Amino acid sequence: MPGPYDARALITPAMVDGYDAVPVGERQRLLRYLEAVVATRSMPVHAAVAFNAVYFGYDLGGDGYGGSPLCLDDFPVITLGESAPPLPVGAMACVATGSDPLYAEIIYKEGAHPEIGGLGDVPAWVSGAPAGAEGPGRPGADPMPLRRELLVPDIHAFGPALSLSPAQLQRLRIRRRWVNEDGHVVVDARYPSRDAARRDDRTAYADHLLTTARAQLLSPLVPVSLAELVGSTRTEALRPALLNLLETVRRVLGSSDVLRMWGPYAMTRKSLAARRRDTGPLGGGDLRSLVAAVERAATPARRRYGLNSPVTVYTALGPRLRGFPGAADQLTGLGYATAVCLANVALADVVQQGSERGLFPNGVRVTLDDAFEGGGVWRSHHPGDGETPDDPLVPLGRGWASTVAPASPQPEPEPGPLDTPLADVADIGPGELVSTDEREVVWRQPLRLAHLIDRCLPLRPYVVGELRRTRGEHPRIRLELHHSVGELRQGEAIQDLRAHLAGEAGCLAGVVWPPDFFPGLMLELSWPRGSQVIRVSTIRLDEPVRVGDRLTGHCYDPGVLTREDAPGSDRHRDTAVGLGPRQLVMRTVRRCGLLTLDGHALLDRSHLPFAVYGRRPARSQRDALESSVAELLAERLLEPAVGSRDVSGQPQYPARAGERVIPLIAYRPVRERVVMPWGGTGPGAERPRAVQFVPGHLRRLLPGCFASDAQREAFRDHCRTLGKADGWELPDGYTFVTQHTRGH
């Protein structure tokens, strides 16, 4: 990669924890590169495409991904006009042709519903309709819905060596057998479920990378493999890290002063300004005409007698742009994606700046109704002052909703999962007094999930009593936080807090906990007698460990970690809503099972469905839970065990003599030692300053040079750590640089 951009330095371990965990310097380095990518590619860059550029190493010098040794044979094949599995934006694919394969990156996608007119007129029911809808108010009965989609491929993404010449591309467009006349691919995408068709772009692309493109994602040939960052090849560990990476890239794009976002697409502000100044087709004049046409679309004709009836018009911008003279040449290839995104931005600017929440002076309310179909469907409604004001740029799908008949009484719905109660919330994680003398009181206690969510810190009754006697019930307390993670953020190391000391229970309110603090983290607290200072420190382990999915270098309480670090629980919420069957199983076993001193949890297997849903669930829900249990047992994330049931009906482990034997499922958090490459310090430790850890990576050789046998073997060893037992062979023209540190 030319210039100052080092592909290995763009994605860092902090990014797998989310945007807020990334230091400012790393964000700025990533932002500079992404701005250069958007400027170089001269097209709207989707957040997934921006992730590809960072993760797979997009060369800004003209080779694109051509210098990145991706396996082209692994790319899915798409054929014009045929049914195919859905491909999200960002997917790398092979377009089937009659001769040489055409490798491309999908940079833009929209719905291509056959009911949309040639000038962008849209039937109301199409706007916001679910995939597979068959007509007004008829969502369709196919559990695997079909949706026609237009894909815009970037056929130059892999450099000149894998690109077609202009003459070859023109022949393909004329024949219209593999791409249409505009160089796009229209396919009938068959989704595996209705839920899959409703997923947002980020989730859809993460699913694609973890399934269809899994080998591509976990390849050791990329600058820094996600598996190396996470330390695991399990999907459960990879998925949250991948979603965090994608979200980090999107938020970094959105933080730029030189870029403008339309949904997940980024464009340079210079390109917007240039388009508005352009006097040619689809320039500033045509954009102003488009905005005016949408604004006036629902203006009723004057009537001599009677009242005007309400008028609603839906306009799809993609087809509407084709109606402007001379626009055809501007809408071929990548130009179509550029034109559609710029048109949406122009219309959005006028709606935001020239109307009152979408309501224009002529009485027409203009809102975005469907962000996907036809390049974006805009709704013009008159009279608009009678509608509830909403954000005009949040698509609500009112077109489809207006055709759906009011729901008739339905049978009782399937139960949703309970917010599984903690079986022993008051008993786990007791604190302990370490020492007390005339100078200070020192004690230890684990951090609890409630402390993170409520931003509080409870104090020992003795300390509460002394503080209340000398300082009153609501004194100001200075909290001094010490954590071996390096430098704490502003507002974390020293905090001026208000204490609430009514009764024996007392706590500090408004605590700002660092992002890497988790339920079960053991804290050591000290109070110098007579002072208004509470000191809190974390306790380092001799070496880092992995417990379940949690990697830590600090002491922890195993019972609290099992109970309160379960799926669905984080520092912002604690809920089972939105969890899949596998996560529901793990959450329920960890939170409701019998808890041992070392953090193991065991649950009566026959009681699982009731514990998840609170009552007997539907058969489909029971089957999904049983299937998930079988998968988790096969992956050894859960283990089978045997217990007994006592006379009161309570399960017991180990099984007691004379009691009925019952099967249990057990969560056993195996504690694994983790050797960190920078010298045995844990994830909560500060790396030596001025020393940078460099992961193992490929390096291109000069022509005529070859890698040594030792480096070929080192590469195979590196691949085995990423989950491939027999390793991969080092590609020709590359050598392997083993992991090392540099600096002083």
Structure notes:
The protein is of the alpha+beta class. The protein has an 8-stranded mixed sheet. A 6-stranded mixed sheet has the order 2-4-5-6-7-3, with helices on one face. A 5-stranded antiparallel sheet has the order 23-24-27-25-26, sandwiched between helices. A hairpin with a 6-residue loop joins strand 17 and strand 18 (507-509). The chain has 21 helices and 32 strands. Helix 3 packs across helix 9 and helix 6 crosses helix 9 (235-254). The chain is globular.
- Tell me which oligomeric state these chains represent: single chain
Across the major sheet, the strand order is 13-14-19-20-16-17-18-15
Unreliable spans are 677-691
Q: Determine the strand fraction and express it as a percent band.
A: 15-25%
* Head-to-tail CA distance between termini: 26 Å
The residue fraction in helices comes out at 25-40%
Overall residue-averaged pLDDT value: 85
The DSSP helix count reads 21
Backbone shape: globular
Biggest sheet features = 8 strands, mixed
Tell me the structural class. Answer: alpha+beta
Radius of gyration: 30 Å
Count of distinct strands? 32
